[in-house]
Each structure stands twice: as structure tokens, then as C-alpha cells.
Amino acid sequence: MSIPLETTGPNMKDYSSRNICTWCDACGDYGIWTAVKRALVESKIRPTETLLCYDVGCHGNMSDKIGGYRFHGLHGRVIPFAAGAKLANPRLKVMAFGGDGASFSEGIGHLVHAVRSHYPIVFVLHNNGNYGLTTGQASALTSKNQPMNTSPNGIPEETLNSMDFIFSLEPTFVARSFSGDIDQMTHVLKEALSHRGFAFVDMLQACPSYNHFATHDMLLEKCYRVENENHDSNNFKKARQLAVDTSKRIATGVLFRREDIPNFYERLVPRQGKTTTPVEEVEKFDVTKLMEELV
Ligand code: SF4
Ligand code: MG
User: Fold this and answer.
1) Nearest residue CA, atom 6 of ligand 1?
2) Residue 130 parent element (H or E)
3) Does the C-beta of 26 come closer than 6 Å to ligand 1?
4) Which stretches within the chain are classed as H helix?
5) How far is the CA of 104 from the centre of ligand 2 (A)?
6) What strands, in cross-sheet order, belong to the sheet with 223-225?
7) pLDDT in tens, 31-48
8) 20 to 30 A from 10, CA-CA: which of 39, 48, 174, 194?
9) How far is the CA of 105 from the centre of ligand 2 (A)?
10) Can you tell me the mean pLDDT for 1-14?
11) Which of the 8 DSSP states describes residue 41?
12) Angstrom distance (rounded) from CA 160 to CA 237
């Protein structure tokens, strides 16, 4: 007897793809890719109920290595597309993925407005500290003085403190994890998927080809789980402090969360009391007469 689809949950196979991954050996993308699928499956989200949006970068090559509805957009522009899709069809679970290069350069304006607008999407920052796809140039998050391929003497600029920047925008969900800890990443992503508004997830990602300053081994040694140390994720000040100070240890897990602030969609007055979604309300209009008037 076959079991009706509605009563069976999704499984890892539902999110599989026939396409072969092309990341370098030991790239952190493999772990993140696995954790994303696990988080979706364990959250009982079917591929037909999710939209996964990818920016340009090594991580963006995940877009055809995973199931679900997917979009692969322009460099730095993944957030506007993901937010727009979510607002058009709020029944979809929408995740957006971007690298540290794009997200903290040409995409930084979108990131700012996503946090302040409180769009109900998950944003996963693939933070490998460089532009990996274009062979190891420095990003705004590359450590200062670190020699990179187009700056062999080290970058002259200061490194952007990405977590301090995010906290300055008064976010409602901030988490961090590490590409070598699939269990922790899965936990963090499940929490992010259950958040009411914009969830920012800083995913520290090993890039053995070009990042020789925050290696897998270094991250493995420095990262620890805040849930093992009774961290209060309601405490904004403490969360910011933990997020910013990575000198001796790196805090991972859900650092800050609040659920009492309505998200962007919930604040839209024209949507109040509606049970339909904007995509369901799209109608066909005959514009023949209008065109005749314009000609
Ligand atoms: Fe991964 Fe770095 Fe290779 Fe890109 S360049 S696939 S981020 S190891
Ligand atoms: Mg990068």
C-alpha cells in the first residue's frame, strides 16, 4: 500500500541532485551544503515549499547541486530577489546565500536594508574571508596585512568588523557556525528557519585553496558552542560582545534572537486580514484597448 505524500516527511534524497560538486577538496561548502539539506529535512520543509537563492561565488555553484526551487543571480544582488520572492509568496521558506566578498561590497546596501526592513528570510553568509571563485583576492573581511593573490604585500585597508556592523543595525536574529561542524550548522539553520523575520547566519567557511589565515584546523580549535555555556540569546549586549571578540575563542550558535518584532510582511497594511498571497492575486488584464490608445 502506498503512503499518501502528505503524510510522509521529506528526506535527504528529495534534496539530492545528479550534478557533481566541483568545489576544491576539503572546501567548507561541502559541509554547509550537507547542513542546509539536513536543516530543511529536519524542519520538515519539502523541496516544493522552499526557494533557495544563490549569489555569485563558489557557494553559488550549489544552486544546481541541491533540490528545491532555486535561483542563481547577479553578484551581490541575492537579497532583493529573495526578499521579493518571499513577499510575493509568503508561504515559501526562502533562504538566500551570499559570500563575504559580494555581501560586504556591492551587496552591502541590500544587507543593510534587509536587516532594517526585517524581511522574513534566512541569509547565510558563506564567510571564507576572500573572493574564492576568482582565485583568492582580498574581500572586506580578509584579515589586515594578509597577503592575497592581488595584494601580495597585504591589503592596505582596515578589515571590516562584519558582526559589529550587523549588530549596529539592530538585528532580530544573529547566529554563527563553522563549516566543519555539521551538527551545529544544522541546529543553527533550523533555528534560523523558524525565525519570524530576517535571520543573519555567519557561516565561517574553510577555503583551503586561498584562505591560509582562518583554516579548518584553526576554526576547529577556536570555535565553541554558546549553548554549552548557558548563553542567554535574549541579551543583545552580551551577544554583540561574543560575536565581535574572536581574538581567543569564537562563539558559535544562536547568539541573539527576539521574536516580538513583526516582520516586513506583517507590517504591510494592505495585507492585513488577507488569506491569499500576492502571487495568487495576479490576474490577467486585456490591455488591447490601452495599446490602441497609445499607438
Ligand atoms: Fe572552496 Fe575556496 Fe575552492 Fe572556492 S576556492 S571551492 S571556497 S576551497
Ligand atoms: Mg568569499
Assistant:
1) 23
2) strand 130-131
3) no
4) 29-42, 78-88, 100-103, 108-117, 162-168, 182-193, 216-222, 236-244, 264-267, 288-294
5) 10
6) 69-72, 50-54, 93-99, 122-127, 199-204, 173-178, 250-257, 223-225
7) 999 999 999 999 999 999
8) 174
9) 11
10) 73
11) H
12) 20
Residue-level pLDDT at 295: 80
Provide DSSP, 240-266.
HHHHH--SS-EEEEEEEE---S--HHH
- 50-87 confidence digits (pLDDT tens): 999 999 999 999 999 999 999 999 999 999 999 999 99
List Cα–Cα distances, 189 to 32, 62, 137, 158, 248, in angstroms. 10, 16, 28, 30, 25
The better pLDDT of the pair 156, 109 is held by 109
What's the rounded Cα separation, in Å, for the pair 204 and 246? Answer: 12
- Ligand (nearest to CA of 216): 1
Task: Give the three cell numbers for residue 6.
Answer: 502528505
- State the DSSP H helix or E strand holding residue 200, giving kind and residue range, or none if neither: strand 199-204
- Indicate whether residue 142 lines ligand 1 (CB < 6 A): no
**How long is the chain?**
295
CB 204 within 8 Å of CB 220: no
Strand-pairing partners, residue 203, are 126, 177
Q: In testing the pocket of ligand 1, which one of 32, 58, 63, 141 has its CB within 8 Å of the most ligand atoms?
A: 58
Phi, psi of 229 (to 5 degrees): -125, 30
